[in-house]
Amino acid sequence: MHIFFALNDSYSRHCCTAMVSILENNGCTPIHFHLLTNGISDDNRHKLGQLTSHYANASIDVRVIDNDIFDSLPVSINYISRQTYYRYAIAELYPDLDKAIYLDCDIVVKGSLSGLWATNLDGCLCAGVRDLWIDNIHYKPEIGFSLDELYINAGVLLLNLELMRQECTFAALCQTTLRPPCNIRFQDQDAINIVCRGRIKGLPAIYNFTSEDLLRHPDAADGAIIVHYTGERKPWGRKRCSNALKQLYFDYLGLTPYRQSAIRRLASNAAWKLGKPFRKRIAGPQPLRIALLIDEFFGGAGTAYGGYGFLARYYIAKYLPCDDIQIDVLLGLNRHSSRRKAIKTRVDDVDVYRLPGRRHAARWLKKRNYDLYFSIELTTSFLKYERSKDKRLLLWVQDPRPWEEWLEIETVKLFPESCYWNTEVYELVHKLYEEHRVRFVTQGHFLIEKAKRLYRLHPDTPMMFLPNPVDIDPHFDVRNYKKKDHIIFIGRIESVKRGWLFCEIAKRMPEYQFFMLGQSFREKAQNDSIMEKYRHGIANLHFVGHVEGEEKAKYIKDAKILVNTSIHEALPVTFLEALAYGTLLVSCRNPEGLTEKFGIYTGPVLGDGFDNVHIFVNAIKSLMSDDERRKSLSVAGYEYVKRTHNVPDFIRNTRALLREEAAKRSLPR
């Protein structure tokens, strides 16, 4: 069994500990260690060499590498040395070997490696274990990978050296590191995953049981074979290592020639920690602090259920935070002006704040010192309390409503929609625009002119297209899924949605089943009273209420048509969710032309809409009676959403925007 380590002199002790752990648990197997280094002191060579006298199955080969070959490769992670790149060259340095195991030095082995060594690589370049931490921070889209694609932690690799030589993998790895196809952040690990993409065999987590595995699957720790102390904090370091398996390192360290020096080092660390309160703290790299401004968080912290909140909670707060981006959700001011403290609620691993009252908001924002404000539209004006003139706003245009839009909405008389026109907010945005402190992006091209009118922007003001994301079920087969004769409505039950029209349509079409997904929230009593007469006596109409997750997805998946009866819409997320399951659209709104492309656009329907129910009925009949056309549009809609509104593109593009805008804070205008 050939096992490789890459190290500098300072890591000799940790490498020796890893080697001893291997030998203690693999006594019947000949182990040939290959140490790739830029230089090891005589003392460390002597200590490492002692292993061969204690373990008859061990041999050690020390190979000094010419560092000039790797000097041009960037090192961007402060606790990782340039020697990490030596693994690139193993196939070329050892032309007589066909297979090898590579291990980082920050590991211990507590079981047999025979299963790993016997793994059939099946024509793959290498094998490794999925990196759960990378999965958790949704990093893969930043390098062009899909969210469910295999990305491995490169600290444990089984290498197909023969195939790597045939395909000149060493040159490809160096080329990718020097001139990456995208902005890579995890240097050699990214390069290995990019170059070997699609040619990596996944290994069980027992062969690279990281700190993240321990957090997620603590019960699996006993079965782990290779324990990997990932991250900056190591068992031997001065900073506290929270890995519950750190004692294993010291157990094996005690079996090495370094055991006496280890005792001295532990004493030194203890003294350092005792003096910690008296030393000035030196801050390391800190993540960007992003404040997401929103007035609802889809039920989180007791807020309403709506499209903005859905986007904020299930896409922005879920997918964008990572190792260098922290997101806090700010819901607005406390209505009690004298309230001194913010109210903090933890929702889905994100901090959600209700700010102090207006008298204390400025001081609170100063203390939080956010790097950037990010807003889905802008619904409150508390940003006026931000006194720092270098703080910027990234405003995602979602549903700008110039006054003419409100005039349309006010044609509804059955139960008029409350008008949320807010001159103070619109003037605040204009002020930030005049101060060059706001950048606009938009979810739809058709919204650009509306935003320019609402915020009084120059006609040439640029707005980057940033489409809303939607999760795509990778297992959904749009061509073969057998849909039912179901028609659905998704949305809050309120005046602007005109849910009563959906009920009237159901009355006229008893041959189909109609499902109303949603509930009333704002002005609940009035909305419920209008809908009450429809809750009984219509056998094919089902009031489902508020649903989420798999239950909601099942309703959408089974339905053939989503009906939207709103008097006003921008581009609702529900349209994208429907198309993601091949469900067609029937609506009197046609945002971005999607309704007429993937369903039937009825044309505008103003007022209460009762006199136009037949238009919706005819549109539904047209689609339901032509199954070939419906299936063709279903596939086209699915492909459009997959291409334009996928989550990986959203993650990559939005994180890049946040970093770019936050960086402008320190730049002169």
UniProtKB/TrEMBL annotation:
CDD domains in UniProt: GT4_PimA-like (cd03801), GT8_A4GalT_like (cd04194)
GO molecular function: glycosyltransferase activity; metal ion binding
Residues in Glycosyl transferase family domain copies: 477-639
InterPro entries: Glyco_trans_1, Glyco_trans_8, Glycosyltrans_8_dom-fam, Nucleotide-diphossugar_trans
SUPFAM superfamilies given in the database record: Nucleotide-diphospho-sugar transferases, UDP-Glycosyltransferase/glycogen phosphorylase
Pfam family, one: Glyco_transf_8
Protein's recorded name: Glycosyltransferase
